[in-house]
Design brief:
Blueprint (H helix, E strand, L loop, with lengths): L2 H4 L5 H22 L13 H21 L2 H6 L1 H18 L1 E3 L2 E7 L2 E3 L2 H17 L8 H20 L3 H6 L3 H7 L5 H19 L1 H19 L4 H28 L3 H11 L5 H9 L3 H12 L11 H4 L11 H34 L3 H25 L17 H23 L2
Antiparallel strand pairs: 1-2, 2-3
Length: 427
């Protein structure tokens, strides 16, 4: 086969799913942000006009990504990672604060959010270090180094008061488990949030009893360990979790900002005072309640494009960003929301399938990183909009309004498409 023919052998199934999400997302952004004074689809004073420009520029970005050699991303992954850290550090000096988070660079009327690009950079760095011949993921020293690679950008983003983007970095632990990270870390990753929820919901004593039973069950039945060491491990971890429970309770009561405390309180149904509940519904829970009403009002078939009364009436603030899924629910109904969910599931399954086909570890690990990041965004955003997860501010990939988000996810995905094309084009 000629080189010119092989150079265009990209995975078109993945590309078509990407295009479907971007196009459908734009129609919903248009519906959520259009006004009676509509003049042009390219009206840059409106979100739909800006997003259309972002989409056009995304095509240029894709051409650049696919034009570079696949080896470029592996060879320069460390440099890309370091540059992403520098861009995050620069926010503490030159950053612009929006909605309480100092996560943007202001360039005139345009803002750039470097945390959206840091995800791809971190995925490349993890793939590079994991695939190094000197790296043994079962060795504790190498595990620490991988954790540091993940934690540095996560901490920098957390210090910018962007909890949503910080949580996404937990997705990389799925990647490490695929590569052989001991499952005790997975157990601990689940135990900490479970303990925190139990402590807030049921109090220290009951949560401590349940946690100790879970730890004992894990060590006795699921983790192979010497019997003489089990007792000390169970006791040590139990004491740690009890201390953690006290810490969670104290931070919740004395250190959390009021809006975060109220969001957790609403999610776990902790507040019993009807007057305070009513006040919270009009402030911190307003977006969520209106979002739930919009989704439920759509029914099975939806009200139709541009026919959603809550969407066109702007009942849900900033509906074109984190709450874009509520527009789908109102105007496209259960059918529309199901299509969006199916598209994301197909995309994730396709990426995982391609990752397993890769001939080198770097491409496989990076592919799993792409799938994990998209999954976390998809799972949390839809869960948040439906009230199943506390509101933390996280966009729906390829769907929510925003140039940085669209370009960040595009870079993340199309680097993998390029890596996969290299696998396809190899003889």
């Amino acid at each position: 086969m000629r080189q010119t023919d092989r150079s265009f052998r990209f995975d078109w199934i993945t590309i078509l799913i990407f295009l479907a999400l971007v196009v459908f997302g734009w129609f919903n952004i248009f519906s959520a942000s259009t006004t009676l004074e509509f003049s042009s689809y390219f009206d840059l004073s409106q979100p739909y006009g800006k997003q259309l420009l972002f989409i056009i520029l995304t095509v240029v970005l894709i051409v650049i990504i696919l034009s570079l050699e696949a080896k470029f991303y592996e060879r320069f992954s460390s440099i890309i990672y370091i540059l992403s850290l520098i861009s995050l550090l620069g926010l503490f000096i030159f950053g612009k604060t929006v909605s309480g988070a100092t996560s943007w660079y202001g360039l005139g009327s345009v803002t750039i959010q470097p945390s959206e690009f840091a995800k791809a950079a971190t995925a490349l760095a993890i793939a590079k270090y994991t695939s190094d011949l000197q790296t043994n993921i079962k060795a504790f020293s190498d595990q620490i180094k991988l954790f540091i690679i993940i934690l540095i950008p996560a901490i920098l983003i957390l210090l910018q008061n962007d909890m949503g983007s910080t949580v996404v970095y937990g997705a990389f632990f799925f990647v490490l488990f695929r590569e052989g990270l001991p499952r005790v870390y997975l157990y601990l990753a689940a135990l900490f949030p479970i303990t925190a929820i139990l402590a807030l919901k049921f109090g220290i004593i009951l949560s401590s009893i349940i946690t100790v039973l879970l730890i004992a069950l894990f060590y006795l039945y699921f983790l192979k360990s010497r019997k003489r060491n089990r007792f000390f491990k169970i006791m040590g971890l139990s004491i740690l979790m009890i201390i953690f429970s006290f810490g969670v309770k104290y931070i919740y009561q004395h250190s959390l900002p009021p809006h975060q405390k109220d969001r957790i309180s609403l999610w776990l149904r902790l507040e019993k005072d009807p007057d305070k509940l009513e006040r919270m519904k009009k402030t911190y829970a307003y977006n969520l309640l209106e979002s739930e009403k919009a989704i439920s009002s759509g029914g099975f078939w939806g009200k139709g494009f541009l026919e959603g009364t809550r969407t066109t009436g702007k009942f849900v603030p900033e509906q074109h960003t984190d709450y874009i899924f509520s527009t789908v629910g109102e105007e496209w109904g259960f059918i529309g929301t199901s299509i969006v969910v199916i598209l994301f599931v197909l995309l994730l399954l396709r990426i995982l399938h391609l990752a397993e086909l890769q001939k080198n570890q770097f491409s496989r690990v990076y592919g799993y990183g792409v799938a994990s990041i998209i999954f976390i965004h998809f799972f949390i955003n839809i869960g948040m909009v439906m009230g199943l997860i506390p509101t933390i501010g996280i966009p729906l990939p390829f769907f929510s309004y925003g140039g940085s988000g669209l370009w960040g996810f595009t870079i993340l995905l199309f680097i993998f498409i390029k890596l996969d094309s290299n696998r396809i084009n190899e003889w």
